[in-house]
Predict the 3D structure of the following.
Amino acid sequence: MGAEEAILAFGRFMNLFRRLTWLEKRLLVSKLYVQEAEYSHPLLPKEALRVLFVSDIHAGPYFSRAQEETLSRVIEAADADLILYGGDFGQKPQDGIAWLKRQRVQKPRYGSFCVPGNHDRISTEPFERLAAAAAEKGIRALQNTMASLPCGIDLFGADDFRTGKPDGDALRQTAAPGRFGLLLCHNPDALPDMLPPFYHLALCGHTHGGQVALFGRAILSSSIYRSRFLSGWKQLEGADILVSNGVGVSALPIRIGARPQVNLLTLRQGETGRRTLRETEAQVWLQEKETK
Ligand SMILES: [Fe+2]
């Protein structure tokens, strides 16, 4: 048995233990949080925009139907103008496709978009099949392409750093001066290869906040830059970056020091600024929504 198979076998055992014990509802790995933040920039449209960023769902054996139901309710209740998926829909591409098939068609004002993650493409399963399943639910895949949104935002979507080829030069050529550039990119490791930035704000996932993180450092980092892009707000040559902890887990069904999260951003015109407002457990956030 190789090291990877041994980890997966141990993960299956941990998952069974988790599901069969009273721990299930108490463990961080079973939860979801909604992190709300504000971001302002002079080039953003006058009318504020609500953007829901959902990354690293990792649908599959470690993502229960109860978690799936909570995520679907949050996506609906967020009432976002724009929904962005940061890749890794499933543990395997087939898991991601199955998750997509169970979702409702989404119709936010400015659309839904996604980029590929490293779990969305394997040698026997190209990203195109998952992209087709996403399209059936109103989610448009971007792979080194740009979508010009009617609100004045250019949305760039990069290919995955590990399993594809992020093409910063191709994206840069589509950037229009005077428009706000929002980059959707699964793995923040791609960003240092795309300098100087042609975007103002990048939304990334992949790191899972370390998944198991102590004192702000990942125990086992999935990044070639270790903990540099671990979680939260970052900057690179004047551009802002938000790295989400993501929703699900990979390898092992465990999270320590890295809350599973979706990110609800309000983008508004103003002096450049970024501010995390609060992070609320999803069930509490949903209850608040229902009572308003
Ligand atoms: Fe992931």
